[in-house]
Amino acid sequence: MKKLLTIVAIAAAVVAVPLAMAQNAGQGQPTPQQGEQADKAQSEADAKAKRRAQATAEMKAKGAQAPQKEEEEEAKKKR
């Protein structure tokens, strides 16, 4: 009976150790944090807004109308 318990315990360890190692395998790699992703998205949005504002200002300076249709489409996309 003691041999049977020993064999069962060894078999359980043989199965459990590789399973635990497989589950932990990907956890050692650094992943981008959600805050970093949000900061990157915000900085890209800010840069895009600055480019649009500059383009609009240049168009107004030349006497052309600002592209309102594009602005309306962007507003619809955000909703």
Please state the average pLDDT score.
77
* Low-confidence sequence ranges: none
| Total of helices | 3
Beta-strand content: under 5%
Shape designation: rod-shaped
Helix content: over 70%
Order of helices and strands: HHH
What would you call the quaternary organization? single chain
Structural class: mainly alpha
Biggest sheet character: none
Distance between the termini: 69 Å
What is the number of strand segments? 0
Gyration radius, rounded: 30 Å
Task: Explain this structure.
- It is a single chain.
- The protein is an all-alpha fold and 79 residues long.
- It is 80% helix and 0% strand.
- The chain has helices at residues 2-24, 34-62, 68-78.
Short account of what is shown:
With 79 residues, the protein is mostly helical.
Provide key terms for this protein.
single chain; 79 residues; mainly alpha; 80% helix
SSE blueprint and pairings:
Blueprint: H1 2-24, H2 34-62, H3 68-78
